[in-house]
Amino acid sequence: MNDLFGKVDEYIQDLVGQEDSALKAAAHSVEENGIPPIAVSVNQGKFLHVLALAVGARRILEVGTLAGYSTIWMARALPSDGKLITLEYDPKHAEVARKNIANAGLSDKVEVRVGKAIDSLPNLEKENLGPFDMIFIDADKPPYKEYYEWAIKLSRPGTLIIADNVIREGKVLDPNSDDDMVQGVRRFNQAMAENSSTIGTIIQNVGAKAHDGMAIMVVK
């Protein structure tokens, strides 16, 4: 079945993926620089691009840059005066991401900030850089609930919030899991379900990235 999911992903990618040389270079830079291969897939990147276009995003916040692959997909949906701020903990990852973003011709639209996201998010509020029109959370899982709470603070009514990797190949079904990433997304999923500030759902996805899911929310 996993082979089938992968083949369907390839079919979709060949049909509408539109991965150009800059995106391919960003994808290759992950392996070349020893970065964990945990970026979104081609089809997920295109999905984020479409979502950004759908909400007419002018300001986007990304929590978790990695090598900048998803960053490029989203930034390309911005208008000429749009802005994307992306937060990355690892300085090496941030350096690779900046090179990939520059290679895609997007340095004027994208700002990469280095440091713990949980420390950077309050600074965005202090600098009055919100509200953002779209926020993508794809970073370390244990503080996902806190990232979600900060996302709401940096939003406006109608802001779209997306959180990746919230199903963990079904491991979220185990309340006694000793995996801190599973427990982190379980905390987030429960918080999303109970928080009246947003309305959202979780979509399971399968394909090149195996079995996982994305939470998609709109701020009320």
- The third-level CATH topology is Rossmann fold
Average residue-wise pLDDT:
96
- Main β-sheet description: 7 strands, mixed
Name the overall outline.
globular
Structural class by SSE content: alpha/beta
Structural domain tally: 1
Report strand order across the widest sheet: 3-2-1-4-5-7-6
Beta content comes to 15-25%
Determine the CATH superfamily.
Answer: Vaccinia Virus protein VP39
The level-1 CATH class: Alpha Beta
Q: In terms of topology, how is this protein built?
A:
Layout lengths: L1 H16 L3 H12 L9 H13 L4 E5 L5 H7 L7 E6 L2 H13 L6 E5 L2 H10 L7 E4 L6 H10 L6 E5 L15 H15 L3 E8 L6 E8 L1
Parallel strand pairs: 1-2, 1-4, 2-3, 4-5
Antiparallel strand pairs: 5-7, 6-7
How would you portray this structure in words?
The protein has 220 residues and is an alpha/beta fold. It has one domain: 3-Layer(aba) Sandwich (Rossmann fold). Helices cover 44% and strands 19% of the residues. The protein has helices spanning 2-17, 21-32, 42-54, 69-75, 91-103, 117-126, 144-153, 180-194; strands at residues 59-63, 83-88, 110-114, 134-137, 160-164, 198-205, 212-219. A seven-stranded mixed sheet has the order 3-2-1-4-5-7-6, with helices on both faces. Helix 3 (42-54) runs parallel beside helix 4, helix 6 runs parallel beside helix 7 and helix 7 (144-153) packs parallel to helix 8 (180-194). The protein is globular, with a radius of gyration of 16 Å.
